[in-house]
Amino acid sequence: MDKMLRKLGWSAARRRQQGESSRGNNTHTVSPRPLTFHLLEEITNGFSENRKLGTGAYGTVYKGEHKDGEKIAVKMLHDILGLDNEQFEKEYFNLADLDHKNIVRLVGYCYETRRECVPYDGRMVFADITKRALCFEYMRNGGLDKCLSDETSGHDWCTRYSIIKGICEGLKYLHEELEYPMYHLDLKPANILLDEKLMPKIADFGLSRFFRGEQSQITKSAIGTHGYVPPEYIDASVLSIKFDIFSLGVVIIKIMTGPMGYFRSAEMSAKQFIELVRTNWRKRLRAASVYPLESYSEQVKRCTEIAVSCVEADRSKRPSIGEIVNKLNETETIIRNENQVHS
Fold it and tell me: Where is the sequence biased in composition, kind Polar residues (predicted)?
């Protein structure tokens, strides 16, 4: 156990020193801290059901609350034969050195082995049981998947646009601002968490990979979630930086038009879908007396165009995340300039 803890601490420190110049939008400089399993039991009320936030392929997440009121999310990794240490180390190292306001922050970890009496082959035996946990900053508003709605209800346009922009900035950090690009490979609403101000933070890096120079590669691994993976992966198991871009496009469409929006987009031409979304949002913007109406309507159109371009079947036609952020910035400039003219 001590060897593992030293490895986690030393490796994270070394990577921080090597990657310091590539960071942007820093939000913290504190290393993830080791936490005892006893403490995690205490702050989660013994991992009680009423503290459970969700369950994924590799672990169950609980809400933990320290005596001083600090809240964290505790992800206890499942005991998966042959993958226990591998999955724990992979997600830890993927997260330990990331530092961006739109990436969920790893605040601590637990790797603790103790001898326990457990049932085995019809009798009780003593065995070494390892408890593995990753601890994250607590996101009060949970997953984005819980607050998706169509154009007629739910969050207003400015809130949705802010969420879209934050996700894009987080993905830009992963793709373009690290020493080597990181592909998330499972971007979906459930893996985007919202804080108390509805700022989005990309989470769940269990499938993520750093790519050192390769433009694309073939994988035999099961990657991503059905409905968010691109056709080149479905057809030929191809991974590239455009994998995340396709997933992003689906996410943006669902933010703008609700959980069924992507299926609606498949039932008509791109031009028809873009105009339909713009018309629906224009009605709501007008009803809310949003000003300047034309500029915000144009921003809706641009966002829909971006999303549609992200889900192009030909990955070479999908934009880069840098191009997407630049286009979003242009819409903000237009709105800002019009407000200044009429102020």
Answer: 19-30
d(Cα 306, Cα 300) in Å, to the nearest integer?
Answer: 10
- Rounded Cα distance between 103 and 169, Å, is 9
144-341 fold: Transferase(Phosphotransferase); domain 1 (1.10.510)
- Whole-number Å distance between alpha carbons of 211 and 207: 13
Contact 326, 292 (CB under 8 A): no
* Assigned CATH class of 2-137: alpha beta
Catalytic site includes residue 186? yes
> What length is written for the chain?
343
pLDDT digits (tens, 9 = 90+) for 75-121: 998 876 555 677 788 888 888 889 999 999 999 999 998 888 888 88
At 135-165, the pLDDT tens digits run 999 999 999 999 999 999 999 999 999 999 9
Question: 75 labelled as ligand-binding?
Answer: yes
Which residue is catalytic, options 97, 99, 186, 244?
Answer: 186
* Domain spans, the chain: 2-137, 144-341
